Amino acid sequence: MWRKSNEQEMVYSIERLDILPILRRKGIARKLLNKAIERITVECRQACIEITALPDDDGEVTTENLVTFYESLGFEKHQKYSSRIDLRLYLDASVKPQTVFDSPVFFRTTI
Predict the structure, then answer these.
(1) Is the pLDDT confidence value at 36 over 60?
(2) Nearest Cα to Cα of residue 65 among 54, 51, 81, 77
(3) Which range of residues forms the domain containing residue 42?
(4) What is the CATH number of the domain that holds 19?
(5) 65 compared with 57, residue with greater pLDDT
(6) Would 111 be classed as within a structural domain?
(7) Which of 10, 42, 84, 107 is the most buried (most CB within 10 A)?
(8) In sequence order, which residues have a C-beta less than 8 Å from that of residue 54 and are 6 or more positions away?
């Protein structure tokens, strides 16, 4: 599930990506995430897409597994908390701020 932010224009969030344990490691999550990115790109070519690496309690998938997976799709770490890591993907590098990690801004400010 993905949604457009009500507070920030051009910011989209991918809320949840759940794959049943029996169906994992078959490329389904990658296909779903790529399809969501593709649909968001059609809507806004300069979007910032946010996703959170927060595993379920089943213990099979770790935060580190999720971060590695999301980074393989181009996401970069934004903020780290005790139990989760927020990541961002900029569809247009020209709007990406210089520092993504812990940066409070979504987009590069023009001077």
Answers:
(1) yes
(2) 54
(3) 2-95
(4) 3.40.630.30
(5) 65
(6) no
(7) 10
(8) 63, 66, 83, 84
